[in-house]
Design goal:
The protein has 87 residues and is an all-alpha fold. It is built from 4 helices and no strands. The protein is elongated, with a radius of gyration of 21 Å.
């Protein structure tokens, strides 16, 4: 007797795909969690946190590219101003 091969749960795969798209589109993880019906946000975070990291990295790259276009002197001044505000 052989065990049946389980087929992927297609509705769940579609839901996961929609959640990936929502995270990539910048929708707040709290809202996504509620829409998915997760009882606690930790479930959503543990499932999709790698997407949030990728999104954060992409935003950092965009910011650095934009700042580089301003020019190194102005970027340096921006960094100095930020340092002075913290003191």
């Amino acid at each position: 007797m052989s065990l049946p091969v389980s087929k992927p749960n297609k509705p769940h795969r579609k839901l996961t795909g929609a959640a990936f798209d929502a995270v990539n589109d910048g929708i707040e993880i709290y809202y996504i969690s509620k829409r998915l019906g997760h009882a606690v946000i930790q479930v959503t975070l543990s499932t999709y946190s790698h997407l949030l990291d990728a999104q954060r990295n992409a935003q950092a790259e965009k910011a650095m590219t934009a700042l580089a276009k301003i020019g190194s002197q102005k970027v340096h001044n921006f960094a100095e101003a930020d340092k002075n505000q913290q003191n």
